[in-house]
Each structure stands twice: as structure tokens, then as C-alpha cells.
Amino acid sequence: MSYHYPIDETYWSKEEIIDVVNFYSMVEKAYEESVNRDDLLMAYTRFKQIVPSKSEEKKLCGEFEKESGYSCYRTVKKAKELSPGDKIKMN
Questions:
Q1: Which SUPFAM superfamilies match (predicted)?
Q2: What is the mean pLDDT of residues 21-32?
Q3: Contact at 8 Å (CB) between 18 and 75?
Q4: Residue ranges of the alpha helices (H) in the chain?
Q5: Conformational region of residue 87, where left means phi above 0, alpha means psi within -120 to 50, and beta covers everything else
Q6: What number of other Cβ atoms are within 10 A of residue 35's Cβ?
Q7: Does the structure show a pLDDT above 70 at 1?
Q8: 8, 29, 32, 47: most buried by Cβ count inside 10 Å?
């Protein structure tokens, strides 16, 4: 990984930063390996508690996709289409 995760160190607590980074890393893992659908959606739920604004989510996820090439939106969308317990693997 030769890029930085977009985080807001001025407003988020250390715990919130860790939770947001966990969500980004789960998206990353969905592209590089596979990840449990339920774990990804739980990480996304926590991400949305920290970033409730849709516009802020789009901004942060857009920055993440620009840096990494991995789409939070497409990953979460695919996860929601799968059954509980399934693994998600992005192409």
C-alpha cells in the first residue's frame, strides 16, 4: 500500500480513526483477497455513524478510490446484494 487513507484527524477521536481505517482496509481486502460480507457491512455501519453525511461519505470514499483504485460504493453495494455469511470478492 503506497497511499494514505483519507481521515479527519481534527474532528475524529483515535477510536473513530481506527474504525474508519478498518472500513477502508476491509474494502481493500475485498479487492485483494475476499472478506466476509457481514464484517464489511458492520464496518460500513460504524463508518456511517462517524460520517453520517452522504456528501462527506462521497468525498472521503472518492478520495480513497482516487488513491487506491478501490470503490467503497461498489463494494458495499455488492455486499448488500449477497446473503448473510457470504464472502465478497471484488474484481
A1: BH2638-like (SSF158504)
A2: 97
A3: no
A4: 14-32, 37-50, 54-68, 72-81
A5: beta
A6: 22
A7: no
A8: 47
Instruction: Kindly state the helix (H) or strand (E) to which residue 88 belongs, with its residue range.
Output: strand 87-88
Q: What is the pLDDT of residue 22?
A: 97
Query: C-alpha grid cell for residue 90?
Result: 471484488
How far apart (Å, rounded) are the C-alpha atoms in residues 29 and 12?
24
Output phi, psi for 83, to 5 deg: -85, 155
User: At CA 22, angle to CA 19 and CA 23, rounded to 5?
Assistant: 95
Contact 10, 49 (CB under 8 A): no
Query: Domain residue spans in the chain?
Result: 14-83
Q: Decide if 43 contacts 21 (C-beta within 8 A).
A: no
* Phi, psi of 35, deg, nearest 5: -145, 150
Is residue 61 within 8 Å of residue 72, measured between CB atoms?
Answer: yes
